[in-house]
Design a protein that fits this description.
Distance between the termini: 19 Å
Largest sheet: none
Strand content: under 5%
Number of strands: 0
Helix content: 55-70%
Structural class: mainly alpha
Oligomer: single chain
């Protein structure tokens, strides 16, 4: 037991678990690697683009079209912003992880404005007290 009274004890900040931080870091790296591969290896690859536009029916062309439709509609950026708002309102590891993944996808896959707004909200949410200390 601590000798400090309850009122003077500083609140613990969010994300104190090393396991949660490691899972979020690995998820972020996987999302970043996937987004870079999708952007530079699939979407901006002229050979694949020409083949897909010529009517080739393959899984790669289907994935390319799906990713293009998602970023044209801003799904990555808005998903990051919604997750960051939920994380700021009620901090939890799942919302933070989803926000990081969608923000990284959005920053690489052409949803930079909205995803870039989500990043400082996610960073700001780290200064919130953990739900157990409220």
């Amino acid at each position: 037991m601590s000798s400090e009274p309850e009122a003077k004890r500083a609140p613990r900040l969010f994300l104190r678990s090393a396991r949660a931080a490691a899972v979020i870091a690995v998820s972020g790296l996987v999302a970043l690697g996937t987004a870079l591969w999708l952007r530079y290896g699939v979407i901006q690859n002229s050979e694949i683009g020409i083949a897909c536009e010529a009517g080739e029916q393959s899984l790669l062309c289907t994935v390319r079209l799906a990713v293009i439709l998602l970023f044209v509609r801003g799904v990555f950026g808005w998903g990051a912003l919604i997750a960051a708002a939920i994380q700021l309102w009620r901090p939890n590891v799942v919302a933070f992880g989803i926000g990081v993944v969608f923000a990284l996808l959005g920053l690489v896959l052409y949803n930079t404005r909205v995803a870039a707004l989500a990043v400082p909200l996610l960073v700001l949410s780290l200064a919130r007290p953990s739900p157990a200390d409220r």
